[in-house]
Amino acid sequence: MLTAGVLLAAGALAACSESVANDPAAAQRAQAAYDAGVELKRLVLDAENTLVERCMAHKGFPQYDHEDGPPSTRPSFESPPLESAQLLGYGLDPRRRAVPDSKAAPTAWDKLPDDEKGRYTRAKFGDMDHDVITYDFGDGKVSSPRGGCVGETRIAIYGDLQEHMRMNWLVTNQFKAIQSEYLRNDADLSDALKQWSTCMVSREFRDLANPGDARTAAGEFYKGLRPEDGPGLDRAKEKEIRLAVADAQCADSTNLRATSQQARARALGDVLTRHEVDIIAWRDFMSKALAVAQEMLAKA
Predict the structure, then answer these.
(1) Which is nearest to 56 in space by CA: 146, 138, 140, 148?
(2) In the chain, what are the domain boundaries?
(3) CB count, 10 Å around CB of 154?
């Protein structure tokens, strides 16, 4: 099992010499390792879920279809294509979203008494208030249960669960933060955004530094409107489309999309090159975890 000393800290790697940065061969190796790691992680998670289900079944609990989290609603901060902007704006009109069926029959989980739900949760996750393994990433903490079927399965698969959380945080979160920092300092992108913002002012949309600000502003048009307020929603949609069209046209006239893509490619290449060792270590960690998980599945 890999130890903390094997995976170098991101801060230390960021201090590498400039000669290391933007090495196409190193970036390609790191990208290949990252792609392999993502697929390995998917397979490990599938195995983990199966093992947890078997553990819960062994404890006498059925599987409930209640635990899927809500879909991600994180918006894209890229300007929309002009064609879709003219038709849908940013697609924020709440009438485009499916309305939950209030008459839907309650699920088996819904019918469970609260004390039975609590018993199920404790069997699956253990004592999440006191018995957890935590990784402190500097600005906060992430935790994983030590007990219950989830905790027992993860410890069996990964061994050092804190190291597993550290590696995953580094690859899935910290790299994004590092890349964002590179983008904030990219001169070409900063210049293109200034041009885009000036273009938006010429179309009477002020105080917008980037397309993300425009999308956020469009969401405000719907604030406080009720689903039955058709005329109000229509007016909000008209405003949204007008803003989105201006956003798209300004992105076209300033070449913002291409500039953003080029800047992100440079940032990604730099991150991949500097953190090749980290990414390869994470891939190898997930490879070992998959071998353990497959062995556990075969024995079950």
Answers:
(1) 148
(2) 37-64+106-299
(3) 22
**In contact, 261 and 14? CB cutoff 8 Å:** no
Contact yes or no for 225/233 (Cβ under 8 A)? yes
Residue 201 vs residues 193, 194, 214: alpha-carbon distances, Å: 12, 11, 12
User: Of how many residues is the chain composed?
Assistant: 300
Would the pTM of this model clear 0.85, i.e. be above it?
no
**Residue 27 — φ and ψ, nearest 5°?**
-65, -40
Report yes or no: 52 and 150 within 8 Å, Cβ to Cβ.
yes
Per-residue pLDDT of the chain (300 residues; tens, 9 = 90+): 333 333 333 333 333 434 445 678 888 888 888 889 989 999 999 999 999 999 999 999 988 765 443 333 334 457 888 988 998 899 899 987 765 555 667 788 888 899 999 999 999 999 988 889 888 888 788 889 999 999 999 999 999 999 999 999 988 888 888 888 888 899 999 999 999 999 999 999 999 999 999 999 999 999 999 989 999 999 999 999 999 999 999 999 999 998 988 888 888 888 888 889 999 999 999 999 999 999 999 986
